[in-house]
Structures are given as C-alpha cells and as structure tokens.
Amino acid sequence: MFPNPIILTNDDGVDAPGLQTLLNVLLEEGESQPIIVAPENQLSGCSHYATVDKTINVTKRDDHTYVVQGSPVDCVRLAIKELVPETAFIISGINLGGNMGHDIYLSGTVAAAREATFHRVPAISISQYVRPNQDIDWKSTAHLAIRALRAVKKEKPLVDGFWNINLPHLEPRDPESQIAFCACCTRPLPVGYGHKKGGYAYQRGFYHKREHLAGTDVGVCFRGDIAISRIYL
C-alpha cells in the first residue's frame, strides 16, 4: 500500500479520463480512497508554472474532489499546505501522451510530482504514450498502470527524487509489455519554426519519430515496454 492520504492530480483537467482511470486502478488495488486535487481546465505543457499574483479559486465538488482554477503545481501546493496538510503521497496522471526524455521539463504532469518532491512528499508521475492517429483503450492503460505501480511499490522509496512512468500504446495482438527501469533520454524533441509576418510560428514535429537512445525511456516505451525512470532533484 502507498502511504495515505494519497493525492491525485494531473494537467489534463479534473474530468480527464486518465485521472478517472488512475482513481479506479488505485481503488481496485485496495488503496484507501484518494483525494483528487486537480486543475479545472486542460493545461498540458504548462511546465512548473505556479500562480503567485492572483487568487486561486478552489471548489469542493464532493468529499474527495477539489477543483482548482490553477496549475498542477498550484494543486500540489494547495493540497500540502491547505486542503490536505497530512498528504503522504502524490500521484500525477494518467497523462494523455508520453512524458519522457526532454518532456519532463515541459510537462505539467511531471511538474506536479517534482513539486511534491521539493516538499519531501513521495510522488509518481504516470503517462500514456499515444501512437499517431490512434485511440487509447483505457482498460489496457489500467492494466499497464497496475503492473507499473506494483513494480514501484517493491522499490526502495525515493527521498530526493520521484518516479516517472511511461506506458506504451499497445495493439490487441502486441506481446505483453516488459517492465524496464531506465534513464531519461537526453536527445532533443523535434523543433522547427515557420516564417510568419513579423516573426516565426512554432511547428510541432513528429513526436513518434523523435531521436532517442536505445535503452532510455523513449526507446523502451516506443518498443512497447513500460518505462520507469528515477528522476532526481
């Protein structure tokens, strides 16, 4: 069992299917009822943004759900300092889209786990890689997430770091995924710009064609296995 109380958050928004999948997984695994403290809106790619110059509105939807008009980092800070001061563990996800390699510096999902670690609260960030033009089977995601979380439970708790998990996007006929503890890839994301009047416009590259090193989280996840990385502060 993870330490309780467990806080769940994300950067896809409080009503995202990945967050509900994570909640269901934990309940099925016999964990105590987690408390959701999540952003009201989708904030993918917000990185480690924290609101410091205006009031952060919070709505208590029910006994186990707080909706925050702020970032994932705001959610973690409010959970620890105000809403659930006895917070013992934080899990951020399940993000729709991979968060590996260079992504860990851009992702709001990963930032939530990082912020928790700054406060010495154990944390996990977990993401579901998505193949181009294909839908996610959240039941498959749940199965992979259960295996990944069980693997992390067997490891020695991290004091000055957190776990970052990336789940592969599998087809029905794909073989069962293996679990690999691996380093983050240090190759950059595809980056390019198009000329626009008066400046430049960012052009998204093909995520699934990104450079990567074999044996790192990108390579592991792309080959169809579960990538688990230790991220140290």
Please give a structural write-up.
This protein has five helices and eleven strands; from the N terminus they run βαβββαβαβαββββαβ. It has 233 residues and is α/β, with parallel strands linked by helices. It has a single domain, classed as Stationary-phase Survival Protein Sure Homolog, Chain: A (3-Layer(aba) Sandwich), CATH 3.40.1210.10. Strands 3-4-2-1-5-6-7-11-8 form a nine-stranded mixed sheet, with helices on both faces. Strand 9 and strand 10 (199-204) form a beta hairpin. It is globular, with a radius of gyration of 17 Å.
Count the helices. How many? 5
- Mean pLDDT score: 95
Report the CATH superfamily. Answer: Survival protein SurE-like phosphatase/nucleotidase
Q: Kindly, what is the distance between the CA atoms of the first and last residues, rounded to a whole number of angstroms?
A: 25 Å
Q: Which CATH architecture is right?
A: 3-Layer(aba) Sandwich
Biggest sheet details: 9 strands, mixed
What is the element string, with H for helices and E for strands?
EHEEEHEHEHEEEEHE
Large-scale geometry: globular
Proportion of β residues? 25-35%
For the biggest β-sheet, the strand order reads: 3-4-2-1-5-6-7-11-8
Number of domains: 1
